[in-house]
Amino acid sequence: MRKLNEKQKVFAVAGGGLLVALAAGGGIWWSRGLVDDVSNKIVADKKAISEAQAKIDKINEIESQVIILRENVDTYSKILPDDGEYNEFLRVTHRFGYMSGVSLGDVQKGSSGKRGKYSHYSYRVELTATLWQFMKFINLYESYDRFIRVVSYSLKAADRDDVAQAAAKDADPAHKISLVLETYVYAGKGQGKNVEIPGYGKKRERLEAEIARGAQAVSLERYDYVEKIGRRDIFVDPRPAVGGSGGGDNPRQYQKQKIDEYLVRVNEAKDVFSRWQQPDLDYVSKETFARRLRESLSAIEQEAALVTPKITTQSLVTQWNNEVLQPIREMWRGLRGDQREVQQNSMTEERMRSLLAEMTGSVARGELEQAMKIHDDNADRLRFPDSDPRFLVAMEIQKVREAIQAAREFNDIPMKIDGVVVVQSGRSGILVNGSVVEEGEYLEDNLLLKAVGPEQADFVYKGFLLRRKW
Amino acid sequence: MIRINLLPEDLRRAERTSPKVFAATVLSVIVCCCALGWFGYIYFGELQELELEHARTQEQIGSLKERVTYHDALQTEQKDFEQRKQTIQEIGKSRVLWTKIIDEMIDVVNNDNDVDRHRAWFRSMTVKDGKNAKEGPSVSLPGWVQGDAYRAVADFHEDVARAPFAKNVKTKSVPTGKRNDDPTRKPSESLFFTLDLDFQPAEKWVHVGK
User: Fold this and answer.
1) Looking at residue B3, what is its pLDDT?
2) For an engineered disulfide with A223, which of A78, B21, B100, B153 has Cβ 3.0 to 4.6 Å away?
3) Which of residues 369-408 of A touch B (CB under 8 A)?
């Protein structure tokens, strides 16, 4: 083999080196491609991780929201149920008809359709009802847990003959009504496919307030209709018929309502009257009841005088006289008769002042029982109406009696005083029944420690200042 | 000039690589080493490190996957409930409380028994739902006021306009009156009119107390 000359060798070496370098360069290029691929994957992974992390960070919040929503699903289901309750709709209509007193006619299925995940369907209901029955009937739907909407309705007023017939029966006329009711049924995902949330019970407990607020957010607006008796039917001609009876603006219901109102007030007065008549009543209580009764009877009598001309229906006039006016008169008689009796037995003002002096003297000497006996012996002769000038003296005597009673009760309160701290520039206190009580603090509901001295403590009991010494 | 080495072969000086070849060889070796070294650095260093990091991120993704799936499932459930709640709210707002409106209308008509101002009554009442989302319900009330004083019709319309429900009325018919005479009633005169009320769509209603 021919030997390579120097030039050839140089070329051979350089060529070989170049080939190897080129191969390595190719390798570098290929590796760089791999590096870029992997780098891109890493970037994508990191993005996915940060997104995942962001989602994970939100889990607690979403969990809470889901729990709130899930716990309120019962509310939603009540409003718009997720199963077909067509039968229930008819049952409800029947029940509401019965409750309101309307006469139901035809109930026919109307149009149906979809709204989001809800299917809606409607019913046309024909009925005959007085205005007030109709109001009750539609209000029952409007205050029902489940969503039912009154879409449209028409009311045709009762004709003149129907109105006359109803009036003859002392009843309200019935109108012909046709209304369309609409409700919805949820047709989306049912319950049972819910995600399992770990520690659901505890989380739900923590979210109780939010769950309650969530229920409010979906609660339907309602109107609580309360029948205001005495208003006339706006679908009836109120003008009286020529030659017929009037009173279109004072219907029987109005008169009945007035009687019922006054019966409540008269019964309340009767209750006070019977309490006033109790024989063992003390003077103050008896006078208090008498005053209440006089005020009550005066008010009822004055107002009843304005109502009397409006009670025109004969059967109600009798009831008004017998059950309202007559008892008022009887109670007045009772009150006035008692006053005459009291006036005959009562003592003079001079004698009363002497009695008061005797009582206060006994109290000052600490003879509480003696003071009380003086009062009790004369109690029956110390009753006066508030218009009598002796009434004020009687009240003074009564106040002394109450003070004696409070002092007796105060003496019976167990109080073991073990220590006393008198502070000149601050709140003094006592160690009583094992507890430290400072001035201005209550020992019991009715017992306030007012002031503490070195040898006594002043208390306020039932409005009286009482002292205990040691 | 041709030079001939006549020394015996064992005495001849060893043949030395020429500096050019040597230089070319050294240079080639350096270039090859650099190239191979660079390749090795990228392939066995940088790439392997990235592969390891990729494996770590994949592992991390794997570990988060369960929580992410949980999140997605929760979100789906949330969206479903939210949609349900929103629809209920929308449907709920579309409901008109007719008891309230009739109750208020009865109060207007009764007018605390002030029959001097007006004493009205109706022949019928027709309530229709709006034809589309932009239209609210409409009410038509043909009726009469007692007497022949047109003032009473105006007073009645004025009282209707003051009623709480009137806040949600878009348009109201103007007061008119057609004389009517019924000799069987006291008084026999009355004025016939039709009260038409077009309400705003229920979703836009202003709710005024109970």
Assistant:
1) 82
2) B100
3) none
CB atoms B125 and A116 under 8 Å: no
B195: distance to nearest CA of chain A, Å? 13
Q: Indicate the SS3 state at residue A449.
A: strand
Express each pLDDT in A137-186 by its tens digit: 999 988 887 788 899 999 999 998 898 888 777 778 999 999 999 888 77
- Judged against a pLDDT cut of 70, whether residue B12 lies above it is answered with yes
Our count of domains for chain A comes to 3
Concatenating the DSSP letter of every residue in B123-160 gives SEEEEE--SSTT---EEEEEEEEESS-HHHHHHHHHHH
For residue B142, give how far its alpha carbon lies from the nearest alpha carbon of chain A (Å): 10
Answer whether A400's CB lies under 8 Å from A284's CB.
no
Choosing from A168, A188, A208, the residue where a domain stops is A188
The fold of the B98-204 domain, in CATH, is Threonyl-tRNA Synthetase; Chain A, domain 2 (3.30.980)
Alpha carbon distance A52, A59 (integer Å): 11
Give the Cα separation of A96 and A140 in Å (integer).
6
**C-beta of residue A266 within 8 angstroms of C-beta of residue A324:** yes
Range of the domain at A137: 88-188
Distance from C-alpha of B69 to C-alpha of A342, rounded to nearest angstrom: 92
CATH code where residue A451 lies: 2.30.30
pTM for this structure? 0.56
Q: Which residue of A has its CA nearest to B90?
A: A218
Between A445 and A155, the more confident residue is A155
Domain-located, residue A17: no
Please give the C-alpha separations between residue B109 and each of B139, B146, B155, B156, in angstroms, as whole numbers: 16, 12, 11, 8
The mean of the pLDDT values for chain B is 89
Distance CA A402, CA A385 (A): 20
Which residues, including other chains, have CB under 8 Å from residue A428's CB and lie 6 or more apart? A420, A421, A422, A438, A439, A451, A452, A453
pLDDT digit string, tens, across residues B124-161 = 999 999 888 788 999 999 999 999 999 999 999 999 99
Task: Find the Cα–Cα–Cα–Cα dihedral A66, A69, A70, A75, rounded to 10°.
Answer: 180
